[in-house]
TrEMBL record, chain A:
GO terms for molecular function: copper ion binding; cytochrome-c oxidase activity. GO terms for biological process: aerobic respiration; electron transport chain. This is Cytochrome c oxidase subunit 2. It comes from Triticum aestivum. The lineage of its organism: Eukaryota, Viridiplantae, Streptophyta, Embryophyta, Tracheophyta. The gene is COII. Coiled coil: none annotated.
TrEMBL record, chain B:
SUPFAM superfamilies: Cytochrome c oxidase subunit h. Disulfide bonds join 24-56, 34-45. Coiled coil: none annotated. Gene3D superfamilies: Cytochrome c oxidase, subunit VIb. Belongs to the cytochrome c oxidase subunit 6B. It comes from the Eukaryota. Component of the cytochrome c oxidase, the last enzyme in the mitochondrial electron transport chain which drives oxidative phosphorylation. It comes from Triticum urartu. This is Cytochrome c oxidase subunit. One of its GO terms (cellular component) is respiratory chain complex IV. Keywords: Disulfide bond, Mitochondrion. PANTHER family: CYTOCHROME C OXIDASE SUBUNIT 12, MITOCHONDRIAL (PTHR46281:SF8), CYTOCHROME C OXIDASE SUBUNIT 6B (PTHR46281).
C-alpha cells in the first residue's frame, strides 16, 4: 500500500486524480490553480526547513553549552540592540517572501471576471448531488439536469474506488473556462475536487462561484468537505473531463434523452 | 444531431465576488422588468432569461415564479 502511494508520488505511471491509501502529498494538478497551490507549498517548505534547521541548531547549542557542569555561573544579558533589530527584521523579511506569492495566488484564484464558456450548477442534497446544465434551456423548464448518487459500499465493480464513485459523473470539457455555481438545497455542503484545487462551500440560500479550467482529460474524484452530520461522507464528486467535441455530443445526447 | 452552442452568462463587473446570489437575482429581476417594459415577445429580453437560467438554481426560479404569481415577490419589478 505504501509502495503504491510512493509510486504514485515518484514514478508517474498514471497521474494521481483520486485519494490513495497512505497518501502524503497532494494529488496531481489538473488546473493551473492546483499547480499554483503545489508550487506555493514547495516555496513555503523552503523557508520552513530553513527556520527548522536554524532554530534546532540554537536549541541544541543552548542545551549543550549552558548547563551546570560546563557553565556554573550564568550570564545575565538582559538587553542587546543589535540582536533585537536582527531578530525583528529577519522574520519580517521571511514573512514578506511568503506573503507575496501567497497573495498573488489567492487573487489569481478569484478569477471571477473571466468570461466563462459554460455554467454548471452543483446542488448539494442529503445525500446526493444534482447537476444542472442550464445554458441550453429555452424555458424555465430544466432540460439537462441529473442526480449523482454514490455507488453503495457493497456493489462497486472491479476498479471502482469504494465510496468515491458515482452513478452519473459531471461531464466537463477540458481546456475550457467553467463557472461552477455551488449551492445546497438543504444543509451546508461543499463541492471539493483536490486535483482541480477547488473547495467551494455550499451555503443554504446563497450561491457561490468557483471557476476552473481543467487542463487535461481524465476522471477526477472529490468528496463533500462539509461534514456536519452523518452521511456527508457518502456524497462524493466525480468530474469527467473530455474534449470539447465529446462534451458537445454528450450534451446533445442528454438533451435528446431527457426531452423524450 | 443538433449542434449545441457553447455560450453562457458573461462575467459581470457588478458582481466580482465569490458570492453570486445577487447576480442571479438581479438577472431574474432584469428579465421581468424588461418583459413588463417591452412586452412578452421582446427579443432583447431573451438574453436576460438565458443569463438567469444559467445562474440561478432551478428551485429558486420556481419559487420566485410562484411568488410573482401570488404577488409576494420581494424584488423591484
Ligand atoms: Cu455534504
Amino acid at each position: 500500500m505504501i509502495l503504491r502511494s510512493l509510486s504514485c508520488r515518484f514514478l508517474t505511471i498514471a497521474l494521481c486524480d483520486a485519494a490513495e491509501p497512505w497518501q502524503l502529498g497532494s494529488q496531481d494538478a489538473a488546473t493551473p490553480m492546483m499547480q499554483g497551490i503545489i508550487d506555493l507549498h514547495h516555496d513555503i517548505f523552503f523557508f520552513l526547513i530553513l527556520i527548522l534547521v536554524f532554530v534546532s541548531r540554537m536549541l541544541v547549542r543552548a542545551l549543550w553549552h549552558f548547563n551546570e557542569q560546563t557553565n556554573p555561573i550564568p550570564q545575565r544579558i538582559v538587553h542587546g540592540t543589535t540582536i533585537e533589530i536582527i531578530r525583528t527584521i529577519f522574520p519580517s523579511v521571511i514573512l514578506l517572501f511568503i506573503a507575496i506569492p501567497s497573495f498573488a495566488l489567492l487573487y489569481s484564484m478569484d478569477g471571477v471576471l473571466v468570461d466563462p464558456a459554460i455554467t454548471i450548477k452543483a446542488i448539494g442534497h442529503q445525500w446526493y448531488r444534482t447537476y444542472e446544465y442550464s445554458d441550453y434551456n429555452s424555458s424555465d423548464e430544466q432540460s439537462l439536469t441529473f442526480d449523482s448518487y454514490t455507488i453503495p459500499e457493497d456493489d462497486p465493480e472491479l476498479g471502482q474506488s469504494r465510496l468515491l464513485e458515482v452513478d452519473n459523473r459531471v461531464v466537463v470539457p477540458a481546456k475550457t473556462h467553467l463557472r461552477m455555481i455551488v449551492t445546497p438545497a438543504d444543509v451546508p455542503h461543499s463541492w471539493a475536487v483536490p486535483s482541480s484545487g477547488v473547495k467551494c462551500d455550499a451555503v443554504p440560500g446563497r450561491s457561490n462561484l468557483t471557476s476552473i479550467s481543467v487542463q487535461r482529460e481524465g476522471v477526477y474524484y472529490g468528496q463533500c468537505s462539509e461534514i456536519r452530520g452523518t452521511n456527508h461522507a457518502f456524497t462524493p464528486i466525480v468530474v469527467e473531463a473530455v474534449t470539447l467535441k465529446d462534451y458537445a455530443d454528450w450534451v446533445s445526447n442528454q438533451l435528446i434523452l431527457q426531452t423524450n | 444531431m443538433a449542434e449545441i452552442e457553447i455560450k453562457t452568462a458573461p462575467a459581470d463587473f457588478r458582481f466580482p465576488t465569490t458570492n453570486q446570489t445577487r447576480h442571479c437575482f438581479t438577472r431574474y429581476v432584469e428579465f421581468h422588468r424588461c418583459v413588463s417594459a417591452k412586452g412578452d415577445e421582446a427579443a432583447e429580453c431573451e438574453k436576460f432569461a438565458k443569463y438567469y437560467r444559467s445562474l440561478c438554481p432551478a428551485e429558486w426560479v420556481d419559487r420566485w415564479n410562484e411568488q410573482r404569481e401570488n404577488g409576494t415577490f420581494a424584488g423591484p419589478l
